[in-house]
Design goal:
By secondary structure, this protein is an alpha+beta fold. Helix content is about 25%, strand content about 40%. It has one domain: START domain (Alpha-D-Glucose-1,6-Bisphosphate, Chain A, domain 4), CATH 3.30.530. It has 3 helices and 7 strands, in the order E-H-H-E-E-E-E-E-E-H. The longest helix has 22 residues.
Amino acid sequence: MVRGRSAYVAALVVRRRIRASPEQLFDAWTDPVQLVKWWGPQGVECAEASVDLRPGGQYGIANRFPDGSILWIRGEFELIERPHRLVFSWRVGANANLERVTVQFTVIADGTEVIVTHERVADEQTRARHAHGWAGCLDGLARHAASF
């Protein structure tokens, strides 16, 4: 089913200030070797990641939960502006709605502000799960950046 724009809840925006350059954080986000080190909210491990970093290229992220189950997030890159912005589609599992994520890396005095905007979310419950997930992912990215 294709949803009209009015069928979505308000876009989710999550921000985090991280002491690293936009280049370092962009690379951490798009390099599968680095991605598996920091991705996921607390209690969720990135079991595997693949990234074909080009417009139209696919990515996949395997989230392993404490019970051992794995849930894949998959999508396609729509826009790549290294090191400032990524736009990609987002689908959790096989039958979920196709959503869109924009990640911006903006220079600030003490590093970079990472801004994640998650759009085309169908309902408030899903939006709340995404808010929790993105907050945890950005915590992990900040911890990973401390090793740069």
